[in-house]
Write a structure and sequence with these properties.
By secondary structure, this protein is α/β, with parallel strands linked by helices. It folds into two domains: about 350 residues, Alkaline Phosphatase, subunit A (3-Layer(aba) Sandwich); about 120 residues, Gyrase A, domain 2 (2-Layer Sandwich). It has 21 helices and 21 strands. Strands 1, 2, 5, 6, 7, 8, 11, 12, 19, 20 and 21 form an eleven-stranded mixed sheet that branches. A four-stranded antiparallel sheet has the order 14-15-17-16. The chain is globular, with a radius of gyration of 24 Å.
Length: about 525
């Protein structure tokens, strides 16, 4: 009798476990969403968007990125692979290639062709020459499809990297907005756009760009003028870019019948207008607040459709961001908060002069300016071959000399050599964040960590950006919502890399093959 009870309990447990698997997983990544936006805009949000997700779902209020740099490409890759740039290889949106000396775009792939219409010649346009081949590990969508070929995985974003790195290597499709304001894809995924996407593309999105985008007494932008000057792709820099992502996602849910079969389907959405507008106007602007209030309505429409067609009980949604953003340094300085602007060209020029004096290299000799190959993404790349051919010192010594020299600048907080990051292991502090973003094959010889609040002089005339190790860039919201997700709030520190193993645990699939995160028991148990 005891054996029978044990067997019955096991069967009940297995049945219960299988019922927990949702039919549809929807990921929502809001590009450049600081954690504090939730509470700053709370009183003006509707009841059926962000508030619904938080009130009915589980809100992790201390979600951190756990690595640097906090850019869009690494952010999306980390969310869906469950690891950091040190492992998945997407170390920036683009980076200097040590071998070729050229820049590598995170999803660029010249072996592919554009699928759909572009303003540029399709044989030479890079608009659709994209794939996830630079991402070295799998996503949770890849792991789902490895053993469930019937499952569909589709990615949508205004940005190619937002769609591709989320959808992964085995996705059925990824769509992004081309430079003419039409949805396009890559030959990596398909040879022709589905008929319903073609039909959508025949309808001009100019209907969204009529009249003014304004809030009375606060700001006013002439949409007709923006459309005339920049073409339909300018929609990306308005709140209505998020609206067309919402519209397309609902159409995909309908036409692809996602969540309507016995297997789990995944739809990844990345709302990017928040990033374009945030860069231009900054987090203190009335434009960014209005953008989030409009996004709140778009999310409410999406939730309403999903609930009516697939059902709350059959759905799992998570919402997070790929990075935050810093206040404009001018805004910080007005408030007597340490901040400023730096010029990397002055810094690298003075470093070259120092190296020439240090190693007695005459400034007028041919090649005297070739110590440094590149400085980008706060990574300093040395010209290894030049140094080995012309100096009787090793690369490691030059790395240390550069790192020590750069510390003299007031906008530099720390410097790290590639040798230091490769040979040591840091578990805490900002050092560990730098290390988790360091990839031995791709990163520079010296990594520079800026002081908080400092940006390149390129932003002096207005706007702001992200990429640092500070909380304004690393702290983002994370919310899980769906029929099997317990309501609650968690304030312990969790990481972006924990999302993928959490989804994998709920779906009963393997973790992505480079995963270094841990499942979140608050929503898996």
């Amino acid at each position: 009798m005891r054996k029978i009870l044990v067997i019955l309990s096991l069967l009940i447990g297995l049945q219960s476990y299988s019922q927990k698997k949702p039919k549809l997983v929807v990921s929502i990544v809001v590009d450049q969403m600081r954690y504090d936006y939730i509470y700053r805009f709370w009183e003006d949000l509707g009841e059926n968007g962000f508030k619904k997700l938080i009130n009915e779902g589980h809100f992790f209020r201390n979600c951190q990125f756990g690595y640097v740099p906090t850019y869009t490409g690494p952010g999306h890759a980390s969310i869906f692979t469950g690891t950091t740039p040190a492992v998945h290889g997407i170390i920036a949106n683009d980076w200097h290639d040590k071998n070729s000396g050229k820049y590598i775009y995170c999803v660029g792939d010249n072996e592919m062709n554009i699928i759909g219409f572009s303003l540029k010649n399709t044989e030479i346009s890079e608009d659709g020459k994209m794939s996830p081949h630079n991402m070295l590990t799998t996503t949770f969508g890849d792991e789902l499809k490895l053993f469930n070929e019937q499952s569909k995985v589709i990615g949508v974003s205004l940005k190619d990297r937002g769609a591709i790195l989320s959808a992964g290597h085995t996705a059925n499709a990824a769509y992004w907005l081309g430079n003419n304001g039409k949805w396009i894809s890559s030959s990596y995924y398909m040879q022709d756009l589905p008929d319903y996407i073609k039909k959508i593309n025949t309808n001009s999105i100019s209907k969204y760009l009529q009249g003014k985008w304004e809030v009375n007494g606060l700001f006013s932008h002439n949409l007709d003028s923006l459309l005339f000057t920049n073409g339909e792709s300018v929609i990306k820099k308005t709140p209505f870019g998020n609206s067309i992502v919402k519209d397309l996602s609902i159409e995909i849910l309908k036409k692809e019948k996602l969540g309507q079969s016995n297997t789990t389907d995944i739809l990844t959405l990345s709302f990017s207008s928040t990033d374009y507008i945030g860069h231009q106007f900054g987090p203190h602007s009335h434009e960014i607040k209005d953008t989030y209030l409009r996004l709140d309505k778009d999310i409410a429409s999406l939730l309403k459709y999903i609930d009516s067609k697939i059902g709350f009980q059959n759905t799992l949604i998570f919402i997070t961001s790929d990075h935050g953003v810093v206040s404009e340094p001018n805004q910080l300085m007005k408030r007597k908060i340490p901040a400023g602007y730096f010029d990397k060209n002055i810094m690298t020029s003075e470093l070259k002069e120092h190296l020439m004096k240090k190693y007695n290299w005459p400034s007028n000799k041919e090649g005297s300016n070739q110590y440094i190959s590149n400085f980008s993404n706060n990574n300093l790349y040395l010209n290894h071959q030049f140094i080995l051919d012309n100096l009787n010192v090793g690369i490691e010594e030059i790395q240390k000399e550069c790192a020590n020299f750069l510390l003299q600048y007031k906008w530099v907080k720390n410097t790290y050599t590639a040798t230091q990051l490769h040979e040591n292991e840091y578990s805490n502090s900002f050092h560990s964040l730098i290390q988790k973003g360091f990839n031995q094959k791709k990163s520079g010889d010296v990594i520079v960590s800026l002081q908080s609040g400092w940006l390149s002089v390129n932003w002096r005339n207005g706007g702001t950006t992200h990429g640092s190790c500070y909380s304004y860039d690393t702290h983002v919201p994370l919310i899980f919502w769906g029929g099997k997700i317990p309501k609650g709030i968690t304030d312990r520190k969790v990481y972006i890399r924990d999302i993928a193993p959490t989804i994998s645990t709920i779906l009963g699939i393997s973790y992505p093959n480079g995963c270094t995160g841990n499942p979140l028991p608050e929503v898996t148990q």
